[in-house]
Automatic annotation (TrEMBL):
PANTHER family attached to this UniProt entry: ACYL-COA SYNTHETASE (PTHR43201), MEDIUM-CHAIN ACYL-COA LIGASE ACSF2, MITOCHONDRIAL (PTHR43201:SF5)
GO molecular function: ATP binding; medium-chain fatty acid-CoA ligase activity; o-succinylbenzoate-CoA ligase activity
Organism: Photobacterium halotolerans
Assigned EC number: 6.2.1.26
AMP-binding enzyme C-terminal domain span: 389-459
Protein's recorded name: O-succinylbenzoate--CoA ligase
Keyword ATP-binding annotated: yes
Length: 488
C-alpha cells in the first residue's frame, strides 16, 4: 500500500467539504447535513479528549443502536481510539468482555446507556462505577485539541478502529479487531456490485455491536449517502429508506403490511431465502440480494441477487476464497488484524495468510454454496449429516420461524438428528416427518421434533451452545452426541 494512502481525510470531512448541505444522517429527532455531522463529531472528540481518551485508547460502548453510538464511534476514529462495541447484557457478561479488553490496572473507559445501568443490581452498579471510568458525552469539551490524532481531519487508515465480539453461538466469544482500511475494503467491494449511491438512504436495521450492522456504517461513509437510525419499529423506520439489511421474516412482514415503500434493494441474511418471497419483493420493485460473511471478514464475503440457484453468490472484490477438502478459507483486504486481548493481537490466519472459517462448502459454476459448519457435521450410520442442511429445509416451512438440529447418541447408528422448532403451531399438527419426505434423504429426517425454548439470543443468532445445554437439562430420553469418533 502506498504510504501516502495511509493518511487520508476522515470520510465525513471529505463529504462535509464536497457536499456540506446534503443530508447525511436521519434520526428519530433530527436530520444532520454532512457539515453539521462533521462539526458534531469534532465537538464530541474534544469532549472525549477532555476525559482522557487519546490515541490507542479502548472505549467500550454498551448500547443498542442510537445516534450517540454512531457519533461516538466516529469521534473515536478521529482521536485514534478503538471502539469496542458490546451488546447490552447482565454486568457479569460485560465484565468478562472487559477482562479481555483491559489489562490489570488499565483504565477502563466505558460509555453505557442509562437504560442498561438501570437493569443492574445495586451491587453491580457500584462495581461498574468503581472499576470503570464512565464517559459523559455531555461533559465540557477540551479548550484545545492537541490530542486529536495527527490532525482533526486526518486519520491513519491502518490504525485499529473497532473491536466486535463474535456471537459465541458455539463457544467463547472472541474480540475481532479491524482497521478503517479493512472496513472500507469490505464496503467498497460490496458496493462494486451492489448499487448504493449518494442519493440513497440505508436503514441501520442491524445492531452496531455485530459486524453486519457496523458494515452498514462503512458503506454509508464510503458512498457519501444517507444513513437512517430508527426507533426500533421497522414498519415506521423503513419510511424513506431505499436500502436495508433484513432477514426474510422481516421482509415478509413489511410486504404483507402493504404500506408504501421507497425500498429498492434489500440485503438478506442467510443463504436459504424463499423464492416466492423474492418474487413478491420484485413485484413491489425491490431487488433482493443474499450473501455469506462473518465477523473476521468485516461482514460480507460473497453476494448475489437472489435466484433459483442455491448458493451464496460470487466472491466480492478485495476478498479471496479457497476450499481445502470442502473447508472454506478466506483471505484478502477485509480480513481482521487479529483477536484482541489486553492490548495484544492474536493472529487469526495460518502461515499462508488464510483464515479457517470452519464452514464447509462447494463451488457451483463459480458461486459458493455453504453446506454447513465443520463442527456441526456428524456421522450417522456411516453417512455424513450437516445440521444446517436440515435446518435450511425446515426453515422453508411456512409455519416455522426457526429451527435447530442437534445430534444425539444412537446405539444403532452412532448418532441421529433431532430438531428444536420455533413455531406458533402445534408441532404434531405440522406432520413434519411427512412434510420432509420429498425434501430430504430419509436418513437425514430428524428422529424427533421438540418445541424450541425461548432463550436469550447472542445478538442476532440463537446460541447453539445454549440450545444444547437446555436440551441436555430437560430431556432424559436422549443423550447429546459428543463422541469425537462420530462428530467431525
Amino acid at each position: 500500500m502506498n504510504v501516502d494512502s495511509l493518511h487520508q481525510p476522515c470520510l465525513w470531512h471529505t463529504w462535509a467539504c464536497t457536499r456540506p448541505d446534503a443530508i447525511a444522517l436521519v434520526t428519530p429527532n433530527n436530520e444532520y447535513t454532512w457539515q453539521a455531522l462533521a462539526e458534531q463529531i469534532h465537538h464530541l472528540a474534544r469532549v472525549l479528549a477532555a476525559q482522557g481518551v487519546s490515541e490507542g485508547t479502548v472505549v467500550t460502548v454498551v448500547s443498542n443502536n442510537s445516534p450517540d453510538v454512531v457519533m461516538l464511534h466516529l469521534a473515536c476514529i478521529q482521536l485514534g481510539a478503538i471502539t469496542a462495541l458490546i451488546v447490552p447484557q447482565p454486568y457479569q457478561l460485560i465484565q468478562e468482555k472487559l477482562r479481555v479488553l483491559y489489562g490489570e490496572g488499565q483504565r477502563q473507559f466505558v460509555w453505557i446507556r442509562d437504560s442498561v445501568i438501570s437493569g443492574f443490581s445495586e451491587q453491580d452498579r457500584q462495581r461498574l462505577f468503581t472499576d470503570c471510568q464512565i464517559l459523559n458525552l455531555q461533559a465540557p469539551a477540551a479548550a484545545s485539541t492537541p490530542c486529536l490524532a495527527r490532525d482533526a481531519e486526518q486519520h491513519d487508515a491502518e490504525r485499529l478502529v473497532s473491536i466486535v465480539f463474535t456471537s459465541g453461538s458455539s463457544g467463547v466469544p472472541k474480540a475481532v479487531t479491524h482497521t478503517q482500511a479493512q472496513h472500507l475494503a469490505s464496503a467498497r467491494g460490496l458496493l462494486a456490485v451492489f448499487p448504493f449511491q449518494q442519493y440513497d438512504c440505508w436503514l441501520l436495521s442491524l445492531p452496531l455491536y455485530h459486524v453486519s450492522g457496523l458494515s452498514i456504517l462503512y458503506r454509508w461513509l464510503s458512498a457519501g449517502a444517507c444513513l437512517k437510525i430508527g426507533s426500533g419499529q421497522l414498519e415506521q423506520d423503513i419510511e424513506g429508506a431505499t436500502h436495508a439489511s433484513l432477514v426474510a421474516t422481516q421482509l415478509k412482514r413489511l410486504l404483507d403490511h402493504h404500506q408504501p415503500l421507497r425500498l429498492s434493494h434489500v440485503l438478506l441474511g442467510g443463504s436459504d431465502v424463499p423464492m416466492p418471497l423474492c418474487q413478491q419483493a420484485r413485484d413491489n420493485g425491490i431487488e433482493t440480494w443474499l450473501g455469506y460473511g462473518m465477523t473476521e471478514a468485516a461482514s460480507t464475503v460473497t453476494a448475489k441477487p437472489t435466484d433459483d440457484i442455491a448458493s451464496a453468490g460470487r466472491v466480492l472484490p478485495n476478498r479471496q476464497v479457497q476450499l481445502r477438502n470442502k473447508r472454506i478459507y478466506i483471505a484478502g483486504d477485509t480480513l481482521a488484524s487479529g483477536y484482541y486481548h489486553q492490548g495484544q493481537l492474536i493472529p487469526l490466519v495460518d502461515e499462508q495468510g488464510w483464515f479457517d472459517t470452519k464452514d464447509v462448502g462447494q463451488w457451483i459454476d463459480g458461486e459458493l454454496r455453504i453446506t454447513g459448519r465443520a463442527d456441526n457435521q456428524f456421522i450417522s450410520g456411516g453417512e455424513n449429516i450437516h445440521c444446517e442442511e436440515i435446518e435450511a429445509v425446515l426453515n422453508r416451512h411456512p409455519d416455522i420461524r426457526q429451527s435447530m438440529v442437534i445430534p444425539v447418541h444412537s446405539p444403532e447408528y452412532g448418532a441421529r438428528p433431532i430438531a428444536l422448532i420455533d413455531s406458533a403451531s402445534d408441532l404434531s399438527a405440522l406432520q413434519l416427518p411427512l412434510w420432509l419426505e420429498d425434501k430430504l434423504t430419509r436418513f437425514k429426517i430428524p428422529d424427533a421434533f421438540f418445541s424450541m425454548p425461548q432463550q436469550p439470543q447472542t445478538g442476532i443468532k440463537v446460541s447453539r451452545k445454549a440450545m444444547k445445554e437446555w436440551f441436555s437439562d430437560n430431556q432424559n430420553e436422549y443423550q447429546l452426541m459428543n463422541d469425537p469418533e462420530n462428530v467431525k
